[in-house]
C-alpha cells in the first residue's frame, strides 16, 4: 500500500511539473503544436492520437532507441503540416506533427522529469509512466488553451482556420530543415533556465 502511495505521489508530482514547465520556453515546441491541434479539431480521438504520438516518440528517443537528427523532426513536421493543409487535422497529420515535435524537444529538466530521463537510460519501461505523466501535464495546458480558444472563436462566429495549425507545423519544420532551430532551441533553453531558476 505504501509503495502504491509513493508511486501515485510521484505521478502527481510529474504531472504538476509538466503543467508548470508548459509555461517555459523550452516546452513551447510541444505546447504550440498542441494549441494548434486543439484549435483545429475537438475530435477526442485526434487529440489522443497527437498526445500519444508525442509520448511514444519522446519515450523512444529518451530510451535511446531512435534519436534522429533534428532535420528528420523537421521533415516529419513539414510532411505532417502539408497533409494537415490538404486533409485537415486528421489522424495521420497530427501524429506526424506530434512525432516531429517530440523529436525536436529539448526539455528543461526538473526533479521528476530528471528521474524519468535517468531511469530511461537503463530501464525504459520503468521510465514510461513518469515521462508520460510529465508530458501529459505539459500537453494538457496546450490542448486546453486551444480548445478554449476555439470555443471562444466559435462563439463570435469566427471559427479558426484549420490551415493556421498546418502553417505553424510547416514553419517549425522549416526552421529545423534549414538548420536554424538549434539556435532557437538554445535561446529558449537559456530563457527557460532564467525563468526556472
Question: What can you tell me about this protein's structure?
Answer:
Helices cover 81% and strands 0% of the residues. By secondary structure, the chain is mainly alpha-helical. The mean pLDDT is 91.
Descriptive tags:
9 helices; 197 residues; mainly alpha
Query: What's the SSE pattern?
Result: HHHHHHHHH
Question: In whole angstroms, how far apart are the ends?
Answer: 35 Å
Strand content: under 5%
Helicity range: over 70%
Number of helices: 9
Low-confidence stretches: none
Shape: globular
The tally of beta strands, per DSSP, is 0
What profile does the largest beta sheet have? none
Q: What is the averaged pLDDT score?
A: 91
Q: In angstroms, what is the radius of gyration?
A: 16 Å
- SS-based class: mainly alpha
Secondary structure layout:
Layout (H helix, E strand, L loop, with lengths): L1 H20 L6 H13 L3 H19 L7 H18 L3 H14 L6 H12 L1 H32 L6 H16 L3 H16 L1
Helix pairs in contact: 1-7, 2-3, 2-5, 2-7, 2-8, 3-5, 3-7, 4-5, 4-8, 6-7
Please give a quick description of this structure.
The protein is mainly alpha-helical and 197 residues long. The protein is 81% helix and 0% strand.
